[in-house]
Write a structure and sequence with these properties.
The chain has 3 domains: 61 residues, Beta Barrel (OB fold (Dihydrolipoamide Acetyltransferase, E2P)), CATH 2.40.50.140; 186 residues, Vaccinia Virus protein VP39 (Rossmann fold), CATH 3.40.50; 140 residues, OB fold (Dihydrolipoamide Acetyltransferase, E2P), CATH 2.40.50.1070. The protein contains 9 helices and 21 strands. The strands form 4 sheets. Strands 8-7-6-9-10-11-12 form a 7-stranded mixed sheet, with helices on one face. Strands 17-16-15-18-19-21-20 form a 7-stranded mixed sheet, sandwiched between helices. Strands 1-2-3-5-4 form a 5-stranded mixed barrel. It is globular. One of its GO terms (molecular function) is rRNA (uridine-C5-)-methyltransferase activity. Keywords: Methyltransferase, S-adenosyl-L-methionine, Transferase. Belongs to the class I-like SAM-binding methyltransferase superfamily. RNA M5U methyltransferase family. This is 23S rRNA (Uracil-5-)-methyltransferase RumA.
């Protein structure tokens, strides 16, 4: 067997000539692929190999020999350590071009699609857009800090005035660090099982400026009293909802089963375009409201509804897209496997006076099978699956139902490409448009709309 052309902890110099779907730069030594974060296509770099597999390697950037004109200084002081952002070192206009290129490459290489992807729709101000933060908790010398884990590890990095959150959230994070430290709250340690406070979730309604906080603890006891909550409400009157989630599971799972409302309202309320949405602690709601509105409007544009259509919204979540579509269709059927999301969807329909949207809880695959037996024609199928994409049974069900149009909303170019390959393989559907929308500026994540027609 031929030896690999690179070896661990050795340095190599090469030209970066592309990107992975995760936003890493790609270089090659004797046609052997090396992935490197923090570099830009066209740069010549020196890299130290940190991982070597049979068919590829990963490396750490040691030196930029020839720098790209699109390289900029990251705004975040901990950008090189925190795992939250991957692209702050690239000027924003180039980030948008890069994401278009990543989608196009995935569609060609994985999906065997020969299509020119539309330019990525970006933001006028691609900073401070996140309305939700899930913070890790660390304690050192009695001082509590909120932050994140370094990419690929459990090394703690302080939030340090994160440039993706509003100034209001950053001020709240600093306040909580001070007050939790004064209360001598203990932090949960996964290895020993000691301590109590595991995580802190902060959600912000951009339309109202209101905030929800969830404290995740191991024990029923919070570690602080009602005075802490009263002082919090006085200092930050925009905090209108405070919860505790009790998670006794020693494993690194996010949620416990038990949510307790400690103070204020049970929900936040936010808006997408003309529609209002209730947000509970468990609700899925897009973290970038401005771009979510654009996405929903593009769905309507591609759907081109007349008011007489039957629409199925599979993986409908809390019904954000369904509610948009329902205003312009005759009937909409929403399918969602998560019971909590389906409950939120029902509430959101009532909140917006939507009466032609019928919601079902269950797996998409089983529901589509039952629908086929009804024989009712479907004009539009909306598909918005999780990152893993659709199952084979779901794709088979979609094709057998034969909707006139399919709009596929994806957050992962590779699984999108895979699923589009299946949907178009027999010529029943033709891929007409693919539009990336930059829902997550400064990161490698990409949201896409794909429009198919029979």
């Amino acid at each position: 067997m031929k030896d690999k052309p690179v070896h661990l902890e050795e340095d190599y110099e090469f030209l970066v000539n592309g990107y992975s779907h995760q936003g890493e730069g790609i270089g090659r030594m004797d046609n052997f692929t090396i992935f490197v974060p923090g570099v830009i296509s066209g740069e010549r770099v020196r890299v130290k190999i940190s991982e070597a597999k049979k068919n590829f390697a990963r490396g750490r950037l040691e030196e930029i020999i020839l720098s790209s004109p699109f390289r900029v200084e990251p705004r975040c002081p901990v950008y090189n350590f925190c795992g939250g952002c991957q692209l702050q070192h690239i000027v924003y206009e180039k980030q948008l071009e890069m994401k278009k290129e990543i989608v196009e490459n995935a569609l060609g290489r994985i999906g065997k699609q020969n299509i020119k992807v539309l330019p990525t729709i970006g933001m006028k101000d691609p900073w401070r857009y996140r309305n939700k933060g899930y913070f890790q908790v660390n304690q050192e010398k009695g001082r509590i800090r909120l932050g994140f884990y370094k990419a690929g590890s459990y090394d703690f990095v302080p939030a340090a005035e994160c440039v993706l959150f509003s100034m209001q959230i950053n001020r709240l994070v600093s306040y909580l660090e001070d007050q939790l430290s004064l209360q001598k709250v203990t932090v949960y340690h996964s290895k020993t099982g000691g301590g109590n406070l595991r995580n802190v979730l902060i959600r912000e309604s951009r339309s109202r400026g209101e905030i929800m906080i969830v404290f995740f603890t191991k024990e029923d006891n919070l570690g602080f009293d009602q005075n802490f909550l009263n002082d919090l409400a006085k200092t930050f009157p925009q905090v209108v909802s405070v919860y505790q989630n009790i998670n006794r599971n020693p494993k690194a799972v996010l949620l416990g089963k038990d949510f307790r409302l400690l103070k204020g309202e049970p929900d936040l309320e936010d808006a997408l375009g003309p529609f209002r949405f209730k947000i509970s602690p468990q609700s899925f709601f897009q973290v970038n409201v401005a771009q979510a509105e654009i996405l929903n409007e593009k769905v309507l544009e591609y759907a081109n509804l007349s008011g007489e259509e039957i629409v199925i919204d599979s993986y409908c979540g809390t019904a954000a897209i369904s509610i948009y579509v329902a205003k312009q269709a005759e009937k909409v059927y929403g399918i969602e496997v998560e019971k909590s999301a389906a409950r939120d969807a029902i509430i959101n329909c009532e909140l917006n006076g939507i009466s032609n949207l019928k919601l079902f809880t269950g797996k998409v695959e089983g529901w589509l099978y039952k629908w086929r037996r009804s024989g009712e024609e479907v004009h539009l199928m909306i598909v918005d699956p999780p990152r893993r994409g659709c199952s084979l049974k779901a794709l088979q069900g979609i094709i057998k139902i034969k909707p006139r149009k399919i709009i596929y909303v994806s957050c992962h170019p590779a699984t999108l490409a895979r699923d589009l390959k299946y949907l178009t393989k027999d010529g029943d559907y033709k891929l007409k448009k693919v539009l990336p929308i930059d829902m997550f500026p400064q990161t490698s994540h990409i949201e896409c709309l794909a429009y198919l027609k029979r």
